[in-house]
Amino acid sequence: MLTNSPTDTMYFAGRQIHIKRDDLLHADFSGNKARKFYHFLVNDFPDVSHVVGSGSAQANSLYSLSVLAKIKGWKLDYYVSHIADYLKQQQRLPSEIRSNYSEAIKNGANVIEIDWSSNLFNACQHLDDAIKVLKQDYLEKNNALETLFIPEGGRCEYAKTGIYELGKEIINWAVIQNINKLSIFLPSGTGTTALYLQEYFVKQAQKNTLDIEVLTCSTVGGDAYLISQFDELSLNTLHHPQILNDGKKYHFGKLYLSLFHLWQQVLDSSGIEFDLLYDPIGLNVLKHTIESGELKDREILYIHQGGLLGNATMLPRYQRKQALTIK
């Protein structure tokens, strides 16, 4: 279950690249969140009745956690800094738009907006700080074994289980394809998937002759932030993927028409729909890297990390922005 996603090819930036289609793992549980939460899906937690997560109200992790909780019969409390008005309005529409938020609500998720005016959070600067405060409250009210806390985006040791499985699939595929030099690329939020993939390949280096590297780019907070996220997971820099950039600083969630046009070109030419939050930045950085000639002697595998449900809210935003630009 949730293994051995197919690999396709597409023509991109003047050459053929391979696409690891983790978006096709499962209809309701796909992409990098399926890999990160795989450990919780396949293992038993007999005492757990409650799972607590956090992040954005538009996050893929919200929907994936809601699916996991529904499968396991757990109650899900998911904390967010803010719920955008348009998401709340969409919930009131007769023909509701399917989004990570709306589908998580359908699955029974309890999405809770932090009340930043509360004295409880006076010393908190970020959502992570608020969760630390709330965690203590949960532990005081419940048996510690009953509640499972999953960090934002699945950034935890348990993510290794599914990501190592992904690494094993990639090595097996490369061997079958007689590939000797492979560069794996994926855009990063917290960098969890990229780091644990690199860690896995470093550990496997003595067992095979494959020259394999993990490349990534930052989509949240810049390269320095991504490095800090790597350090939280592993201080061994051999386990840190190489960070690429195209010389531009992107603001997470901001609309860039040039990136939307690239996304549309890829969809039209390949028939593969990518996510609109992370992949346009990733594709642009990869395009810049390919065109610079850095990867000319290596095969390239781009990991499609799913997240397509989020396009239901991102696509209308881009279409409105494009219409205003044309006017």
TrEMBL record:
<feature type="modified residue" description="N6-(pyridoxal phosphate)lysine">
    <location>
        <position position="33"/>
    </location>
</feature>
<dbReference type="GO" id="GO:0019148">
    <property type="term" value="F:D-cysteine desulfhydrase activity"/>
</dbReference>
<keyword id="KW-0663">Pyridoxal phosphate</keyword>
<dbReference type="InterPro" id="IPR027278">
    <property type="entry name" value="ACCD_DCysDesulf"/>
</dbReference>
<dbReference type="InterPro" id="IPR036052">
    <property type="entry name" value="TrpB-like_PALP_sf"/>
</dbReference>
<protein>
    <submittedName>
        <fullName>1-aminocyclopropane-1-carboxylate deaminase/D-cysteine desulfhydrase</fullName>
    </submittedName>
</protein>
<comment type="similarity">
    <text>Belongs to the ACC deaminase/D-cysteine desulfhydrase family.</text>
</comment>
